[in-house]
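Check this.
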Amino acid sequence: MYIKNISAILLSGLLLSGMSANALTPQMTNNIILSSGFYSIKGVLEANNVPTTPPVQDSQSVTFNSLENKIRTYNQSIKSFEKTLASINSTDVSLQFDKQRFQYSEQNQALQKQVDAYKQAINQLQQAIPSADEATKSALTAQIGAMTILQKQAEGTITANNAIVAGLNDAEEDAENELAETYTSTKKQLDNAADQIVMGAQTQYITLVTIDNNITALERSISAIDRTTPVMEKQLEIGMVSELDLKTLQNQRDTAQSSLESIINQKETLQNSLSVMLGNDANTTVTVEGLPDISYDIKKINYTQDLESAMKNSYTIWQKQDALRKASNDYEDDVTSTLDAYDAAKLDLEAAKVQTENSFKALYETLLEKQRLLEQANENLTLAEQNFKVSEVKYNIGNISKLEYENAKDTLESSKDAIKTAEVELFTAYNNYQWGIKGVI
């Protein structure tokens, strides 16, 4: 009954998709029916020419040294930042002021014509007064008085308009300064955001290198367990180990295999994420080519000079300086009547300087510690190489088994893995230190 229900559900799905159950050929039916009598979803999809596996992605190789330039060139968010800055930079604040000045100029020209007309009329009326009778003189005088008032009003409007135009010149200068400040402030913020994107991409790149190292270590661990398993099975037969010991070893392999599959999935996800950050479409993934050698660069580090650059370039310090500038302007422009905001901004700036210096010092100390750990790992590798040479001699003369020899080789490889891990951690510390110099802490 259960099998019939499953068959009915699958056939219903075929009918809903537009495919008749009768359209299934015997060959197709054989492809989708399992030996147990159940229908395979995969078989149904394949019978309908529906892909059952993800499409193969194009692979793009990228180096660490080329990564930053590629991100800044192709990342969609950074491209959007550039458009925003271009829009601000292309803004013409003088256009609206030119329009207002033109309007006032036209108005003044019209008013000036009125003033000239009043003057001419007043002059004509004054010339008519001497020959007029008393009643007419009185009327003419009243008209002259009224026209004089209108003339003065028009002249007053012209004077007021000229004052407004003069104010527009100052307002235009202020607007241009404000636009320049807006551009500078926005560029600083967007540059910092772009730096964060690049830094995030570099972190993903380094993580992928670490994952590759971990995959190698897990594969070697699984191989070692596979070598040991047959030996332990023989030992179980003669009573040297218990079934629990063998089960524990098998569980270790299962755990290692599960970790390997999980980390491979993480790698694919991270590769696709980095590809998107590089501006690629979903059909493209990326592979990384390891990390560059920084041994020479580390030797050139000058903490005193680097700290000075870090303080100068610090985005956090710039933010506090900008807040102090605005607080000072607000006080000078009577936006605020107290110095509290200005004093608070000063305290914030000093605190930011102290915090930045401490944070940069921590980056430097971390760098020194990672150098020390790499030196220690190299010393351990030297010792491991010596021990392996002894094991190799013993194996060649038959004093140890092949399994013991392979285990000694694994121990040596583990020491090499420790070197790789220490190198990645040192590179990460160095890269963070370089970002600190650029002001990103």
Notes: DSSP finds 13 helices and two strands in the chain. The beta strands are 58-62, 284-288. Confidence is low (pLDDT under 50) at residues 1-40.
